[in-house]
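Example (one chain per record):
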Amino acid sequence: MSRFLTLIPYLAAQKILKTSVRPGYQVRTVPVPKSHGHICHEPVYSRLTIPNSAVSLRDGYAVIASESHSATEADPVHLKTFIPVHTGSPIPDGFDAVIMHEDVRLYDSDSIAILKPARPGQHIQKAGSEVGTGPMVLPAGHLISPEDIGAMIGYGITSVQVQKTVAGLIPTGDELKEPCTAPGPGEVIASNCEMLAASLETIGVECLTYPIVPDDPVQIQNAIEQAVRECSFVIISGGSSTGNRDHTENVLNEIGSLLYHGVAMRPGRTTLAGVVDEIPVFGVPGTPAGALAVLRELIIPWLSDTGYPVPIQNTVQVTLADTVPSELGTDDFILMVTGKVGDEYKAMMLPRGGGQMSAVKSNAVLHIARNSEGIKQGKDCLIRLTQSYPHPDNIYLFNGLYDPILDVLDQFLRKMQKRIYVRKSSIETTYFSLQNRNIHGGVITRPWGEGICERLPEYSILPEKTTAITVAEREYILAARIFPDIKSVRRFTCPKIPENLPLHHYMEDFFQKIQINPQCIERCDPVCSTEMEVIHRILKEQVDFGPCSAHLATEYDLFGPVIGKDRIDLIIREENIETDEMRFLQQVLASEEWKSEAGFISGYNLTRSGQISVPK
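Predicted structure:
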């Protein structure tokens, strides 16, 4: 096997699949109430005549039409031959029309006055007018819907023969561990097949997941041979590249035939396809992003092309909030998140290397064809939605700081069918996106305390024409494993913190407040610019204590006194603060329900949550 793949175009791979292979299927008999989403194997015929006799379509009176022809409101016709009927009542023999209550005057129990003439068959449903015994109800190949189930039961049908498409999923790799087990160094939990199965089951494909197969060609061959005997098509996760432990191509050539290996698509370029005993076999990359892309962009479209009823996915016209680069000659499938900003749908690109979390956060895919090197920010394009809930109209798009309390806010908003997505970005990028109206707003932190705002204006001053809505105040502590008595005479160590960071000022202000002799504190190299760097030095016992957020400290069992706080703010364009979307968000943050929801998280103060502030 060559160490280098010869990539075929994405559209060529689609054509090969469409013209070369079809999924097999199994024929099963299932009870009608359990047949939703199945495909009829053969025509379904009615076993009953519905209705089985003529019935009334209205509440009123069964009459003989010829006796009412001269009736008018001015000169009613009095009838003594009539029978009261209700909607659905059988029509007695000898009667051929129904007159509604409102067209009749009842004088006594023996006679009625007809105000309008009746025609033969009026308000009567004839026997067999809906369906007779024997006509076709559903054709072969029909996808059974809930309405079909109701009709079949009503027509006396108790079971139906269906075609069932079964996908066999084979996870491969020496590094894989079973779900619900803790992976060791170099190991990963086998999650691809479960993800692929869940996707296929949403379109009605039954899935059979086999045990993990190590990187051994004999065991891989045995697994494939078993799967092709039991399934309509097979997907092998992992082993599709060209490394020493990638055996899928050689095995397929040994026991079947190879259709292609390598497609110019990203992610998923190492994918392959072959045929074993007339059953299609697909190899997908071991990375979740690659496996999901191949399923969405090759396997499911192939199923649709071969006649399998795949639901049509919704698309939406969006304006790109970012420039999305692409590789010439490659069909690119980029995970996006889209929401409605003002009157337009905007779409933000998720990090390509974001792993499974990018797929979790995304709700759309952008396809950039192979003849393009990307699409510039501000351009309009069509994206395909991968999630329908919450609707893009109800999704807030933000750039800026990430903080765990924003996940709690997102969770809280979901109760109201809304969502907030925050993409990490620099303060400069956040302000730029805000100015270009590509996002609803930004997330920033502002130090809060006596004198610190003046010393750090770049952190404290809001940009012009913006308004801030406070999410929460975040507390900082001087963290340690076991906090020492820092007023004792011994010398203590802490990390050096750059003077332009709030962490430095929180710590130094605290030392001054409790009147610690500066000579008793040794500030040690190397310089720590992030809270995690501080925490790692504390855990390695390289320093006695250091500043970090109280919430982060609790995750590492660190403790200490509060030394400062900052505010996590949503910054909104001044012109948008009174829109329905922003007023709703502000009211949510100011509500007691939100404060109760987020109150369990240590290290935050929600007293100011929902308060609005403007630039000074």
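Caption: DSSP finds 16 helices and 40 strands in the chain.
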